[in-house]
Amino acid sequence: MATSLSLFTLSDLPADVRVPSYARSDLTPGIVHIGLGNFHRAHQAWYLHRLMDQGLAHDWAIIGAGVRPADAAARDKMLAQDCLTTLIELDPAGKSAEVTGSMIDFVPVQEGNAPLIAAMTQPAIRIVALTVTEGGYYQTGTGDFDAAHADMVHDAANPDMPRSAFGAMIAALRARRDADAGPFTCQSCDNLQGNGDILRQTIVGLARLSDAALADWIDAHCTFPNAMVDCIVPATGPSELALARDLGVADNVPVTHENFRQWVIEDAFCAGRPAWEKVGATLTNDVHAYEAMKLRCLNAGHQIIANAGEILGVETINGCMENAAINAFFHKVELTEIVPHVHAVPGMTPEAYVDLIARRFANPQIRDTTRRVAFDGSSRHPGFILPVIRDALAAGTSVCGLALVEALWARMCEGTREDGSEIAPNDPSWDTLQAAAKAAKTRPESWLDQTRIYGDLARDAVFVTAFSRWLSLINEVGTTATLTAYVANDPQID
């Protein structure tokens, strides 16, 4: 029988479940983390947990936070098990479980975010970190700060009762400045190239709408380190809950993950930091090359295969890699159209990295759903695919396969698979995307008219011609035949 997870039952868990070596009573907070999803708990919280296991960083414990109504339900579940998390590593060679304890509290989720602001105002908090998804930073289609967004307009008009995480951070920084408590580091842990720079743009841009002097103080005193984060972490569902119980732990919010992690962090922390490098993180002042390799090969690679998989009804990412046509498509686009625009990093060439992620995607133990990976394409394609297309066009190299990636996304957004089943809405802008996708069935360029996504690419003749030809071919002969034609260099379409 599985043991309910709590601080009082850690000694009752099976002997092969690793538990913290440190006592919760020894920990004091140093970090507020906003966005306590599976990825954070399998990645950043794990690094800190392993550091605490070495007897270090006991004054850097995490206080969890959220700003969405759904975060309140997550808070209840976490507090019910003393903020402990069961991490289940899914290695092809076998499974293992570990309980992490680096998170010690979760602030109440309330309209106006008063409890969150109060927590961040405490001088002991030296880092405020976020995982709010790549689409959560209030950017325009050109990457600028979106001051006209309703949330930003609200927070600028109501700085003491903000709606967004960024407004809450600004309110806390105002209180700290006024109390001479000093700044904190603002740390993005999302999949965005230059994520720290983008976080600075959002925080300073929002602050400037209501208090220019505060904006200048934040810009001068806070730091915003860039970072690259990497670990494949599926969503938790009934099978993951059952897996935890099979391993002897009754955890209401367990997390499964692959047997790979990477964290590359710019060493720019205005108020100190844990010694993450002692547990495998890379601290550097040159994050960009690592970011570019990961975002362009892995994150773009997910988009290469996920849309085709959804259209063909392939439920998982490892299932996509088992599909011969999708697998061949993935490798050709990666090696011929992405790798030429990626630089090597210490110990890893782009070609070797593609081989690594192909093995990771194919891990049969990781049930990472195609639907999860395809979610929010309106943020992921501009973030991961379109920058490579722009670089390739500027260099005069092929964008044929990348244009096909975009055509597959357009076809997926029609909302039906090739077997006739429905693809449920899977993007915050689904209605707009679906309308454009349906219009593109008769006029492919209609999809590219979404200027908030494509901008100047909608006027590039090379890209537009390739995209239109691919989308027409998909509608004519189907996805598998189209992928096969691309891989075979069919002269009629390349």
From TrEMBL:
<keyword id="KW-0560">Oxidoreductase</keyword>
<dbReference type="InterPro" id="IPR000669">
    <property type="entry name" value="Mannitol_DH"/>
</dbReference>
<dbReference type="InterPro" id="IPR013118">
    <property type="entry name" value="Mannitol_DH_C"/>
</dbReference>
<dbReference type="Pfam" id="PF08125">
    <property type="entry name" value="Mannitol_dh_C"/>
</dbReference>
<dbReference type="Pfam" id="PF01232">
    <property type="entry name" value="Mannitol_dh"/>
</dbReference>
<dbReference type="InterPro" id="IPR050988">
    <property type="entry name" value="Mannitol_DH/Oxidoreductase"/>
</dbReference>
<feature type="domain" description="Mannitol dehydrogenase C-terminal">
    <location>
        <begin position="286"/>
        <end position="468"/>
    </location>
</feature>
<feature type="domain" description="Mannitol dehydrogenase N-terminal">
    <location>
        <begin position="30"/>
        <end position="278"/>
    </location>
</feature>
<protein>
    <submittedName>
        <fullName>Mannitol 2-dehydrogenase</fullName>
    </submittedName>
</protein>
<dbReference type="InterPro" id="IPR013328">
    <property type="entry name" value="6PGD_dom2"/>
</dbReference>
<dbReference type="InterPro" id="IPR036291">
    <property type="entry name" value="NAD(P)-bd_dom_sf"/>
</dbReference>
<dbReference type="InterPro" id="IPR008927">
    <property type="entry name" value="6-PGluconate_DH-like_C_sf"/>
</dbReference>
<dbReference type="GO" id="GO:0016616">
    <property type="term" value="F:oxidoreductase activity, acting on the CH-OH group of donors, NAD or NADP as acceptor"/>
</dbReference>
<dbReference type="InterPro" id="IPR013131">
    <property type="entry name" value="Mannitol_DH_N"/>
</dbReference>
